[in-house]
Amino acid sequence: MKRFSIIVLALAVLIPTALFAAGARDSGPVTLTIAGRDGAFGNAMDLAVEAYTRENPNVRFEILKLSGPELMEQTVIELRGGSGAFDVILIDDPFLPRLQEAGWLVDLDSMYRQKNLSIDSDLVENMVNIGRYPYPDGTLYALPHVGNVALFAYRNDIVKKYGYEKIALWDDVLAIARMVNRQEPGMVPVLFRGVQGNPIVTGFLPIFWAFGADILVDGKPAFNTPEARNAVEFFLELAKFAPRGVTAYQATQVRDALMSGVGAMAIEVWPGWIGDLENPELSDVVGKVIISAHPGQVNPSSSMIGAWMVGIPRDSKNKDAAFDFIRFLTSADVQEMMADKTGIPPTRHSVHKIPELVAKYPWYPAQLDGQISGSVRPRTDYWSQIETVFGDYLQRALVGEVTAVEALNQVQRRVEELLR
Amino acid sequence: MNQGKDRIAYNAFFYLIFAPALLVVLFLTIYPMSTIFYDSFFRYDFITGAREFIGLQNYTRIIGEELFRRSFINTLVFTISASFLEVFLGVLLAFLLYGKFKGKRIASLIIIFPMIISTMVICAVWQTFFHYEIGLFNYILTRLGLEPVGWLIDKNTALSSIILVDIWQWTPFAYLIIQAGMGSIPEELFEAARIDGARGNQIAFKITLPILSGQILLVLMLRTLDTFRLFDKVYALTGGGPANSTQTLSFFIYREGFSFFNFGRASAASVITLFFVAFLALFYVRKLLREDS
Fold this sequence. Notes:
heterodimer; A: alpha+beta; D-Maltodextrin-Binding Protein, domain 2; 2 domains; 5-stranded mixed beta sheet; 18 helices; about 50% helix; globular; B: mainly alpha; MetI-like fold; two-stranded antiparallel ribbon; flat
């Protein structure tokens, strides 16, 4: 009896203590570490974190603001190490399959189920599917945070001056570029990012697709096709009307040339770059630039999606808090706030339709269309290598070191070796 | 007998003291180097962790690739041009500023200034100087009625532009070492030469330079080994472009390792670079030791 009493007494003391300790741990302060981006993405994250902390004072944040390559390196090194140092990570969509394949991300479908929640249908389905592996209908590993879609920009006043109501074909772009070159001294007819690797390829892909070419056909490289040759030859012809230093042009140079009124057309702009296009304090072309889907050619226009996704590393020690935060980050209110204050493109139908935002960012309908029907870059483990090889040879063709055919043959050979 | 015991005790004590340092060296140098050497024989994807032994395939493929060969040649061109010009200009500066004169301390401070600034800051500044449309250099050229130059955007000038930045940053290092060497030469030696009727150039070429040959060789070695690993300036100024004209071995390794996470290929390229740097170091060290003896 004495023994029984001692056990009961011990349990009476230990159980409440354990419960209290567990409760205290749940409600105690949590620090979420976000591996994020620099620039406008970083500013948007600051705003979201500030708003979240107001509602959840027990959650603190550490935000790493890194450039794209730095973020990729640090993510891989950290996730491979498995120390659980990161709780939330931003991921560029072409890189997502590599992380998913490695099994480094938390299964969000399971988390939704565990918490009796469902994915909000207001999020653009095509954008949500980017976070699935296998793409597009597998398990969900990431939510769409930044709804970047590559778009085409042109000066409406100039295009109209040369008899065009809108630009439907890439041939129109070339014809207008020729006329601007002849008749508009001091004006740059065409702008794009010419830096080798990702920038030049990203700018070129809408042309490549519009000419009927593709990177991989049935999993095999398809660079040595007549369609690919036509696309590259067209690009080289168009590039004759680009600025002299286009091989060093990055997003900043394209944006500055467009917003200062020097550029007539930009074959690639991303909503994240041009948030201030209609801001009269920063832009000389308010109301003059049309941002639309890309022209077509052999094929109709197909926008290229370049979303930034947000996921939770498998080894995070604060998965529940991280899950709550990424849902908050992708909620309508937060997307509206981020879009309004930093120009970050939302990934929700409803936010694209807010009249104040549409007035501020007139390209929202085109952006939403692009998100709904746009294409993603090939889902392959080797995308970064393919992109690098393609970008290297594309730039070599651009500076006249090799012809379009030589460049494409080399890319075909190198990519075949890669995929072997 | 006692002497033998003492000797063993002495040796044991010596090894005991030496052991921690040896362990640190083994851990920090030998272990990573042997890991890289081992990995270089595998197809090794860092993300999935998949490894497959492929013998010398990484080496044969890399050596057969045009990009690697171009990176190697660019590295050699950069190393030879930058290190020799830096040492030459460093010697020239040390000669020009030799002796005591008013303002020497300030002049020396100004000269060594580039060396103490962060490379990334230097690159940001030079990038604006080199800018094709709004850069200082092209502004001057166009004011003089000359054609602007595509410093960083023309494949024929991009590598030379990076060499120029490196020379600007590291000539002060050569100057400092040579100047220290010149300061240690007794003044009487020059006076005696002058009394014997030696002219300035004879003193420079027949007395000063031979005495300084050890320092010159040392600074040449340090700059050669450093320039051979060129990465930061390429990363910040050109990203390896245009058209791979500024690709270097370090950049090649970085791309394979941290963009593609192909650790097998990155390791093989590192081993090739390591052997080449070791060969260069050995060449200089032998020369330096010969100088000493």
